Amino acid sequence: MWKEIGDREMGKIRPNSFSSWIKSNRISNLQLSNNKDIVSPHRGSINSLQVDLTEGRYLLSGASDASAAVYDVQRATNYEGNGLIAKHKCLFSVDKQHGKGHKYAISSAIWYPVDTGLFVTGSYDHYIKVWDTNTTQVVMNFKMPGKVYRTAMSPLATSHMLIAAGTEDVQVRLCDIASGAFAHTLSGHRDGVMTVEWSTSSEWVLITGGCDGAIRFWDIRRAGCFLVLDQSQSQLGRRPPVLARSAANKVSVSKSLSAGQNSLGKPRAPQKKYANGHGMKQLTIGRMPAKSSARQRLHPGMLSIQDRATAHYGAVTGLKVTDDGMYLLSAGSDSRIKLWDLESGYNTLVNFEMVRLQTSKAIQLAISQETAQVFVPCMTVVKAFDIWSGKMSLAFRGHYESVNCCWFSSQDQELYTGGNDRQILVWSPCEPMTDDTDTAHTKDQDNWSD
Amino acid sequence: MAMEMEERGKVGTLMEKATNSTASEVDPRLLKAIKSVVRSSDFELRLAAHTLMDLMKRDHSQVRYLTLLIIDELFMRSKLFRTLLVENLDQLLALSVGFRRNMPLPAPPAIASALRSKAIEFLEKWNASFGIHYRQLRLGFDYLKNTLRFQFPNLQETAARIERERRERERRTREILQNKFEILKTNFSSVKEEIQSTVDEIGQCLDIVRTKEECVPPILLDDEDFVEFRSAELRQIRLDSLKEGEKIHENNDNKVVFDALRELYKLLVTKHLVLVQERISLLIRVEVADNRSRESMLKELIDIRNSLMSVKKDCEESGCALPKTAKNNTEEEEDFWEEGDFGSIKNGITTEPEKHKEVESCNADEKSRSVEDRNSKKSNKRSKNLAKLPASSMVKGKDKDCSNLSSKGKETQGHEKSVRGDLLAEAPVLKWGSFLDNWGSVSNRDTLANQKGLELDNHWGRVDYDAVIPAEKIAELNLQATIYQEKVGEIQPCRAPLNKGGLCQRRDLKVCPFHGPIIPRDDAGNPINQNSSTDNTDPDLGSDLAEQLAKQAVNNVRERDKEEARKRKLAKQSLQREKLAKVREHNEAVLRDAAMASTSISAAFGEDMGETVGERSAGRRNKQTLASMLRKKVTTKDRLAQRLLNTRATDAMIRQMTQGDDATYKESFPNQW
């Protein structure tokens, strides 16, 4: 520890790597926090958790008893046990008692990505409601054709304010907050849509996972989906790092072009030079359909064989895009977790160690980019896997019933998990105990009488 | 195996040993050993935590129960152990509380429920003492309590509540005492005055009575009378009665004074004395700021009480304290006065004081008050009665004798009763019959033959109404004939060993249909070979028969001498023996039950092996093991079912039924082929 700090002082370590080193150190020490309790007011299982994206301070939870609540995760409301235990009670909660609240279970509660003034809840009572946080009043109502499984808003969006909603219905609808109407109806799934996720690299790209086992990519500027992930198409491992590849690229470009036009018509993105990294790639995906003539021909009515491809046997229950937008992690009711290369649309064949996933409900995955870990709710346990190797690195045992959702706050390096046992647990890096708080109360010490 | 042992270490074997028991507690020596081993190193502690979790997974509630006890011991002591254990707390709870539907607690159910309640109790305890340091504990507790709604014993809270209630009660009593004290303070002087006035009045009354008594000469007895009472007791009694005679007695002259005195006395005893006593206790108990006033009041009150006591004593001595004696004979008065039985009343009077003392000693004030109330109601009547009584000591002396006599009479009556009981115990129980008409009377009378029963009325000719049956004939006819009934002894069970274990419990007189003639058998069901033993003894008997006979004769003589002593002893011993026999019978029953309980193929196998080993097998069979706890008791129903519902039996029955059907069919339609 001190050596690294010394190195940083000397300028041997760059600030970025120093902070990521500290973060990854902390993340590897995550454990059930003893001195941070979130007091859940919910009387049903917690279905959704999200910390706001602007301040990283307010945790929003949605639960099966049609209630949603907001907590301040940085300032405790009161302390217990001689100030040892910080209790975070909810700042407010809305439930059935609220005149315009939901009637049935809230399956999804998300923050408006731009600020904390709004949040959106989707419920099994077929409604999506947009709430004003300050007045806790419903400001907008969207009636959906069926139970709402998941709602999502793009964290990048600057030009639209769309709520993507996955429902019982086969169609994915985009609800426009600006107009209060459905902007799009995306059809293509053959069964209900369990999970929706916006791309983290392009504000126009939406990813949906359905009960039919398909993961579809939609460019909302165009009709129809442009990519269906196929579990049978795979590449081994992750692509080599950009710098190492740049030499080889020149060869592969021609190859890939020819591959793109083969009979199968793989929906494979043209291998482009993206040495510029993030911003460049984002452009790539956004522009991709427009660029490729082959794709254009294929696009609205893709070959049916392509259209029928599945990513999982059974329903797709969870989706999570990595922060850089290059990879997608999907969880299915076949108890598999798959890592997809978004550039190629291929399954990377990473073998995530044996897990058992909840099949009946959508689950919410979380990713910590610093340590390249994914947190997956596996029944009562949340497991952290290394994204690239699939090795389990940590297991978080604490819930007494199945865990539905987890959220990783990279700002505080804290993990929040919510489950059927109505608890929201905080997992934080362990800190050295300060003993002086102990003195008044019963000490936690060895006590051998004989 | 050895490798495994080594790997699991010392603590593993110790725990294995500790949990492999049917007791409801861990062997304290083993527990101590475990603790000391675990304490020695962290490695052993980790190992212990691991082993304990493994043991908790065993499919036997008893093992889990004992493991849980060990876990609790270590949990309360070691921090490292706690941190290790809370990691898997949900698993531990699932295994001990069994709250997951797919993981119910294993058999046996009785111990499983004990395990559950213990686990819940422990969780509460752990949460109370260490919950603050372990989120997992709080979570588990919260989950079981608020989500699954398990009933926790709530020990701490209950204790706190009781404590709170106690404090509340104390506070209230203090307040009440305080209030009382204030009231007392304000009207202390008036109370004093009131008491003083009563005391003064009593004093005046007593004075009046005494002055009157002066002129009434006491009836004294002559010396020649005195010598009649020879025995010391009688003399004592007489002295007492003389003293009694010296007391002032009520008569028509001082009746009014006595009445007043009585009233005052009553007031004194029932009101003032009690009140003063109460106030003293109040002053003792109350906590007030100014101790000085309290103490002075206390002193005064004690003085008042003493003076009251002395006045009371005065009253009693002066004989005016008649309420006392009156109270004594009220009950008897009602019963006996009408009879005019002099002695019994006096008896009542003289014997009652002792009784009264007892009553007084153990009595609460209220009780005596109520008694006295009753007395006061009857006081008029009583005083009249007493007035009728001549106050002579002579009579009193006689009364003493009477009382003695009567008590003796009572004794004899009691004796009679016991004789009657003896007779009753001895009396034969007979069936009803006509012979009971003249039971016990030796009737030598002839009996008229035609006086009872049918009116014959000349039907068969002239009736001789005077026909007589002679007495001896009657005696002959009345001869009571009973049917000899063999005493039904207990029919011994066959007790032949069954191949599925256990002994044959069929009770037949001579031959068991399954196992042949019934012969004595030992506990394992092996026949005790009688033939050989009799063969052995017989020749001996034959060879020195003469000696035997001589010995026998000597023995007989000696025995006759001893008989008396022995009989006395026997009477004592028989009681003891009976008790012993009962105990033994019980023991045997228990053993039999235990043997029955452990009937299964494996047990039977063990038994077969045991037969060769002999006695040791019985001990082994009775020892309870973990496996035996799981075994179901084989009931008679099970055994019957096994016998009746097997395929062979059902087949046979079906065959029989069809045969029967065929037969009836053939009989009904013999001409159809």
Question: Would you mind describing this structure in some detail?
Answer:
- The complex is a heterodimer of chains A (450) and B (673).
- Chain A is mainly β.
- In chain A, 14% of the residues lie in helices and 36% in strands.
- Chain A has 6 helices and 31 strands.
- Chain A has helices at residues 2-10, 15-27, 242-260, 278-291, 293-298, 304-307; strands at residues 30-32, 36-38, 46-51, 58-63, 68-72, 78-80, 85-88, 90-94, 106-111, 118-123, 127-132, 137-143, 148-153, 162-167, 172-176, 181-186, 193-198, 205-210, 215-219, 225-228, 316-321, 327-332, 337-341, 346-347, 366-368, 373-378, 381-386, 392-397, 403-409, 414-419, 424-429.
- Chain A starts with a helix and ends in a 21-residue tail after the last strand.
- In chain B, 71% of the residues lie in helices and 1% in strands.
- The model of chain B is unreliable at 1-5, 220-226, 323-412, 532-542 and 599-621 (pLDDT under 50).
- In chain B, helix 3 (42-56) runs antiparallel to helix 4 and helix 9 (155-186) crosses helix 13 (255-285).
- Chain B has 4 domains: 2-153, Alpha Horseshoe (Serine Threonine Protein Phosphatase 5, Tetratricopeptide repeat); 187-412, no CATH class; 546-638, no CATH class; 639-667.
Descriptive terms for the model:
heterodimer, A: 450 residues, mainly beta, Methylamine Dehydrogenase, Chain H, four-stranded antiparallel beta sheet, 6 helices, B: mainly alpha, Serine Threonine Protein Phosphatase 5, Tetratricopeptide repeat, 4 domains, two-stranded antiparallel sheet, disordered N terminus, Rad28/ERCC8/Ckn1/ATCSA-1 (chain A), DNA damage (chain A), Transducin/WD40 repeat-like superfamily protein isoform 3 (chain A)
